[in-house]
Amino acid sequence: MPAKKRTVRIGNWYKSDDEKVHFTRKRKAPRPAKLRKIVPGQVLILLSGRFQGKRVVFLKQLKSGLLLVTGPFKINGVPLKRVNSAYVIPTSTKVDVTGVNANQIDDDYFKRTQAQRRKNEQGFWAKRGELTAEQQTAEKTRLDGKRNTQKSVDAALITAIKKTQLLKQYLGARFTIGKTTRPHELVF
Amino acid sequence: MVLAKFVEVGRVVKINYGPQEGKLATIVEILNDKRVLIDGPTTGVQRQVIPIRRLTLTKFNLKGATRGARSGVLTKAIKKSDPFAQYAQSIAAKKVAKKALRAKLNDFDRFRVMILRKRRSALLSTQLKSLKKNAGGKAQAQAKGGNKKK
Question: Rounded to two decimals, what is the model's pTM?
Answer without folding.
Answer: 0.72
